[in-house]
Amino acid sequence: MTLQRLGGRTLARRLALGTVQFGLSYGVSNTLGRPDGAEVDRILTFARAAGLDTLDTAPAYGDAEAVLGHAGMTGWRLVSKVPRIPAEVTDTTGWILGGVRESLQRLGIPRLHGLLLHDPEQLCSPRGPAIRAALIEAKAEGLTGKIGLSIYAPDRLSAFVEVLQPEIVQAPFSILDQRLVTSGWADQLAAAGVEVHARSAFLQGLLLFPAADRPTKFGSWPSVWQAWAGWLEGAGLTPVDACLRFVAMHPAVDRIVVGVNSAVELAAIAEVLDAPLTSLPDWPNDVDQRLIDPSQWSTL
User: Fold this and answer.
1) How far is CA 122 from the centre of its chain?
2) Residues 276-299: pLDDT tens digits?
3) Which residue among 26, 64, 69, 87 is the one 20 to 30 A from 56 at the CA level?
4) Coil, strand or helix: which one is 98?
5) Residues 85-140: pLDDT tens digits?
6) pLDDT tens digits for 237-253?
7) How far is the C-alpha of 144 from the C-alpha of 113, rounded, in Å?
C-alpha cells in the first residue's frame, strides 16, 4: 500500500472514514461482511498515516463505537449521532444526554467533534424544542464541539434549520445524486460557516459495479448505466476516481465520508488525485428518485 501517487496531491486530506462497516454488514456492494479487529486496526493505522483525521460513527451502527473504542481513539475527531428517540421516552433531554455519555464511554474519549441528529424529522415534531435544548446543552457541557444534522435529502433542510442552526450537516452527494448542490444548499451552508460532510459518494457502492455484476433490480434504468459506462470509458477514469473527484470539485464540501472493509480498499481511495473533472456524464434529464435514494431500494 502506498500513501501518495507521484506527481500530484491526493484527496486523502479531505476524507473522513465512515465506520458503519465496522459494526454492520453494510452496502449493496459489500460481499466481505464486517472487517475483524485486526483489519480495523490496519485500516485506522493506514488512515492516520494517509492524513485522515475524522471518523464518522453512530450508536445505530451495531457495535461500531465499541470497536473504535477498543482500537483507541486518541488524536481522532469523532462525529457520532443521536438515534431516533422512541415514542415512549418522556425525558428527551435526559435520554439524549445519557446516550451521548454512553457513546463517549464506548469510544473512550471525553468529547465528540460533532453530534448529529440521525433523524432530524423529529425536530419538526412536538418534542423538537426539547431536542434542540438537549443538543445545545450537550455542547454547553463540553460533550461535543459542534451540533448538527444527518439528512437524507436537502428538500427538508429549510424546516430543520428553523428549529436548529446546525454547525455540521452530513448529506448524500454523488455524481448521480447532485441535489445538495443543485438545490443551492451546499453553497448556503458553506457561506454560513457550516461544515458540510458529503456521504454516499459511491451511492452505497452502486456506482462501482461492473455492468455484469450490478444487481438486477437496478436494471430498470439502462439509459443511466449506458451514460455512466460510456462516459467513464471516454474519460479514461475508474469509477472510484470519477466519484471522488466529482465530490471534491465542490469547495463547499469539507469532508467526504467513505467506508471501507479493508486497508487495501482505503489505500485505493486515498490515492485518488485532487484534480477536477474536465467533463461530466450526460445523464437523462430526470433521474428517478427511487434510484438515487437508497431508502427506497427495498421497494425495487
Assistant:
1) 20
2) 999 999 999 878 989 999 889 989
3) 87
4) helix
5) 999 999 999 999 999 999 999 999 999 999 999 999 999 999 999 999 999 999 99
6) 999 999 999 999 999 99
7) 6
Instruction: Tell me the C-alpha distance between 167 and 201, whole Å.
Output: 21
Nearest-angstrom CA–CA distance, 88 and 139: 25
Q: Which of 267, 240, 246, 197 lies closest to 12, judged by CA?
A: 267
Q: Which residues pair with 116 in a beta bridge?
A: 81, 148
Beta strands in the chain (DSSP E): 15-18, 54-56, 77-82, 112-117, 144-150, 168-172, 195-199, 255-259
Whole-number Å distance between alpha carbons of 66 and 99: 14
Q: Which three cell numbers stand for residue 64?
A: 461500531
CA 61 distance to own-chain centroid:
13
Output the CATH code of domain 12-299.
Answer: 3.20.20.100
Q: What is the pLDDT of residues 19-60, one digit of tens each?
A: 999 998 654 444 456 899 999 999 999 999 999 999 999 999
Residue 111 near residue 145, CB atoms below 8 Å: yes
CA-angle at 199, arms to 219 and 74, nearest 5° = 140
Beta bridge partners, 10, equal: 273
Calculate the CA 205 to chain-centre distance.
13
Dist. CA 280–CA 243, nearest whole Å? 11
- Distance from the Cα of residue 207 to its chain's centroid: 15
Closest of 43, 60, 45, 103 to residue 78, by C-alpha: 103
Q: Where are the beta strands (DSSP E) in 100-239?
A: 112-117, 144-150, 168-172, 195-199
258 forms beta bridges with 17
DSSP 8-state code for residue 83: P
